[in-house]
Each structure stands twice: as structure tokens, then as C-alpha cells.
């Protein structure tokens, strides 16, 4: 089965902690601080590999974690940076935040490599905190935490033209005739289980890429059958060719088929119904009922809507050339750049400084401050030391927490509660 979706967990590397140490040498009575900085954590990087065409590998491995930075050492030794983790994906892969479904990155067009999660910065060693009044700092900065995220990977084929139609109407046969693609063709439903790509070449000019989107069925927009697996591949195309069985060899009505497919496209993504369309009335060489002129009915129904109808035979090639030249002219009037999905989700919101926090008055004279970053800050700050307490106060000020307390009407002598700690507020 063609793998075009996967859900994986990604995590960047944690920054290495800064080190606390002091110079200790013979004949040096009071050496100063010499704790080194921690190393930077590794990034999570996605990179296009043109040799890949499915997301199969991600079905076996779903967890990807970059290396953390090493802790700083004595004698101002800098910790080793964590190694970046490069994740290879096929061109056309869209990376989405799993919970919201918003696009983080589209690995298409010029976007061949992108850092999705940055590793944590390394913490500063205690040598950075020496001052005239604090010559023996026993505090070093912890490394910045790692960032983690569940993401969905979706492979959406990159093609100028998409072939759509119900199963067994001749899409694969058409593709094999007009391109260099060689899809497997047999006479049963859902022969094609994955999109096939081919290039249509013209002697006198530039061709285009065409994709055989596997046969749709009613309810595809709701995920019935393999609906969502197939419909996602149409989203990048610029022109749609509806292929219908004009001979009704399986008892289907061609006009009804077009309407049903357009309805499925609209239910899945309304933008798809606005794509330029042409209709290929296939299997005209198999029409034996002269009274039922399917081609005439198709033209009467759809050409007033601006949708041209071409009677063709994918087997003999009759009418195919005219159809291809029409599609090429349609593409000339459209943007030549590939369809790339815009970024909707910014992983920078995972930066510690952007994490949400809440400040509220619990009762008269008592205010509460909460938030994940604040909790972590308390975990690695020694509030019993003057340096540590001063560091925490600066954190509260630079992050706007003190301003919010004042906006709530806090007064000197009021109590501030932060995860089991209580402080008296004074300016």
C-alpha cells in the first residue's frame, strides 16, 4: 500500500547546563570562577530527498530525538554541541502540527531544507556571573529545555494536471498513452492504489506533469474507501481532467459521474471546484448504442459552464492530441510556480519565552502566578541565595509579570504565591 501519511514525534536537543567551578592551582590562593558554558542542543531538520517517493519509513520509526548539548566543564571548557538530526522526506511532503492540523512547512518548490525545531541554547557557566560584589558565584545557568512536537506528515504529489474519475474509466490507460508512465493496468476496481506521475512532452515546447489520482467513489470526502488518501493529492494540481466512460461499459451515467465527483471535491475542499476543468469522454470506440449520444449530453450539460468536452479513446489515441493541446493552453494562463501551502503554525511558540502564563488575584491581598516556564525556573533557581533571588526577580520583570501584578492592583505587603512559594511584594 502506498504510504502518503504518517504521524511522528520530534524533539530537539536540550542545551547543556553551565558549569560551576573555581580555579584551583598551586600557589593561587583564591582562584576565580572558571565554569564553562554548556553546548547547544541539536536541531530537528527536515530535508528533501529526491530518491524517496513514499513515507513508508515513518511507519516503522515514529520517534525522532536530536542529541542534547553537553554540560560545560572546568577551566572554562565549553560543552560539546548536540548533533542535529536530519529527517529525509520526499518532495511534496507537508508537515502539520498534529493537534491543530496547521501547516508548519511544505517541502516543495525551493524549500528543500528547513529547521523545524531548534535545539536549546547552552547555559552560561558561573564565570559569567562574577561581579565586584559577588566574586564567588555558585550559580550557573541551566541549558534551555528541548522542544517537542507531534507532527503529521502528508505527501501531496506535485503535478500540474490531475486525472479524476470513478474506478475503471481508463485513467491509467490514458496516462500510459500520453506520458512515459507505466502504471499497472487491469480490469478490476481500484487497480490503482497510488498516484502515478508522468510527463507530457511536446515537440515544439514545454510539457507538463500529469498525475493519475486513484479512482474516487461516493463518500470519498468523508473518508469512505480510500477517499482522503486520494483527495489530498488533487490539492496541488492546477487543472483537472475528468475522465468518464462514454460507452457506459459498466452501466454508469457519465453526466451523473461528473456531478458526483465535483460534489466530492467540494465537500473535501471547496477550492478544488474552482480549478479549471476539462472532460475526456473516453472509450468512444466502444460506443454501440447510437440512440444514447453520451458525448452530446456531456457537451449540452457542461460546455455552457465553460467546461470543454473531448471525445477520446485512450486505447487508440483518437482525440487525445486535441485534449492535451487544450490543457497546455489552459496552463499557460496560470501561475507556473508549483502550488505550495503557506505556513500556518510557527514552532517559535514553543520557545520558552513565549509560553503562556497566568496572573490572577486569588483573594484580597493574595495574588497567584502560574505557567510552565515559571515552574521550570523555580526548579533550577536557588531562591535562598542572593544571586538566585535577584535572577528570579529580573525574570519576573522582563517577562511582564510584575506589570501584570500592578495592573491587578497589587500593593506593597501583599502576598504573591508561585508554586508553593510565598513572597511579600515590595517595589
Question: Overview of this structure, please?
Answer:
Helices cover 18% and strands 23% of the residues. It is of the alpha/beta class and 427 residues long. The protein has a six-stranded mixed beta sheet, with helices on both faces. A five-stranded mixed beta sheet has the order 3-1-8-5-6, with no helix packed on it. A four-stranded mixed beta sheet has the order 15-16-17-18. The radius of gyration is 31 Å and the shape is elongated. The termini are far apart.
Computed over alpha carbons, the radius of gyration is 31 Å
Helix proportion of residues, in percent?
Answer: 10-25%
The sequence of SSEs as H and E is EEEEEEEEEHEEHEHEHEHEEHHHEE
Strand count: 18
Helix segment count?
8
Separation of the first and last Cα atoms:
66 Å
Measured by DSSP, the beta-strand proportion falls in 15-25%
Indicate the topology.
Blueprint (H helix, E strand, L loop, with lengths): L4 E7 L32 E5 L14 E3 L19 E5 L3 E5 L5 E5 L5 E5 L30 E8 L5 E4 L6 H8 L17 E7 L2 E8 L14 H5 L7 E7 L8 H15 L8 E6 L11 H9 L5 E4 L8 H13 L25 E6 L2 E5 L1 H8 L6 H13 L2 H7 L7 E4 L2 E4 L3
Tag the structure with descriptive keywords.
427 residues; 23% strand; single chain; 8 helices; 18 strands; alpha/beta; six-stranded mixed β-sheet; five-stranded mixed β-sheet
Concise description?
It is built from 8 helices and 18 strands. By secondary structure, the protein is α/β, with parallel strands linked by helices.
Amino acid at each position: 500500500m502506498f504510504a502518503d501519511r504518517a504521524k511522528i514525534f520530534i524533539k530537539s536537543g536540550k542545551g547543556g547546563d553551565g558549569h560551576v567551578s573555581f580555579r584551583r592551582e598551586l600557589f593561587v590562593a583564591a582562584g576565580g570562577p572558571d565554569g564553562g558554558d554548556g553546548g547547544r542542543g541539536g536541531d530537528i531538520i527536515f530535508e528533501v530527498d529526491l530518491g524517496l517517493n513514499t513515507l513508508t519509513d515513518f511507519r516503522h520509526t515514529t520517534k525522532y530525538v536530536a542529541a542534547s548539548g553537553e554540560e560545560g566543564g572546568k577551566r572554562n571548557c565549553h560543552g560539546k554541541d548536540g548533533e542535529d538530526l536530519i529527517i529525509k522526506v520526499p518532495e511534496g511532503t507537508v508537515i502539520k502540527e498534529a493537534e491543530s492540523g496547521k501547516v508548519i512547512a511544505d517541502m516543495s518548490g525551493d524549500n528543500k531544507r528547513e529547521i523545524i525545531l531548534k535545539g536549546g541554547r547552552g547555559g552560561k557557566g558561573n564565570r559569567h556571573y562574577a561581579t565586584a560584589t559577588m566574586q564567588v558565584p555558585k550559580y550557573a545557568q541551566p541549558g534551555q529545555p528541548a522542544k517537542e512536537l507531534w507532527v503529521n506528515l502528508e505527501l501531496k504529489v506535485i503535478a500540474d494536471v490531475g486525472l479524476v474519475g470513478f474506478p475503471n474509466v481508463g485513467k491509467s490507460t490514458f496516462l500510459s498513452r500520453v506520458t512515459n508512465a507505466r502504471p499497472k493496468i487491469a480490469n478490476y476496481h481500484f487497480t490503482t492504489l497510488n498516484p502515478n506521475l508522468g510527463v507530457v512532452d511536446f515537440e515544439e515546447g514545454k510539457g507538463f506533469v500529469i498525475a493519475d489520482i486513484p479512482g474516487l467513489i461516493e463518500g470519498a470526502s468523508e473518508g469512505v474507501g480510500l477517499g482522503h488518501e486520494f483527495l489530498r493529492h488533487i490539492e496541488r494540481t492546477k487543472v483537472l481532467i475528468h475522465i468518464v466512460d462514454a460507452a457506459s461499459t459498466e452501466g454508469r451515467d457519465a453526466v451523473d459521474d461528473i456531478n458526483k465527483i465535483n460534489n466530492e471535491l467540494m465537500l473535501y475542499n471547496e477550492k478544488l471546484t474552482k480549478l479549471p476543468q476539462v472532460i475526456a469522454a473516453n472509450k468512444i470506440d466502444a460506443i454501440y448504442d447510437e440512440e444514447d449520444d453520451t458525448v452530446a449530453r456531456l457537451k449540452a450539460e457542461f460546455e455552457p459552464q465553460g467546461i470543454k468536452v473531448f471525445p477520446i479513446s485512450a486505447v487508440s489515441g483518437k482525440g487525445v492530441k486535441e485534449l492535451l493541446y487544450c490543457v497546455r493552453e489552459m496552463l499557460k494562463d496560470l501561475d507556473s510556480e508549483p502550488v505550495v501551502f503557506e505556513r500556518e503554525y510557527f514552532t517559535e511558540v514553543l520557545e520558552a519565552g513565549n509560553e503562556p502564563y497566568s496572573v490572577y488575584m486569588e483573594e484580597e491581598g493574595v495574588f497567584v502566578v502560574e505557567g510552565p516556564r515559571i515552574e521550570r525556573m523555580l526548579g533550577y533557581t536557588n531562591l535562598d541565595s542572593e544571586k538566585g533571588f535577584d535572577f528570579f526577580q529580573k525574570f519576573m520583570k522582563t517577562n511582564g509579570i510584575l506589570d501584570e501584578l500592578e495592573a491587578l492592583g497589587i500593593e506593597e505587603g501583599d502576598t504573591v504565591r508561585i508554586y508553593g512559594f510565598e513572597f511579600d511584594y515590595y517595589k
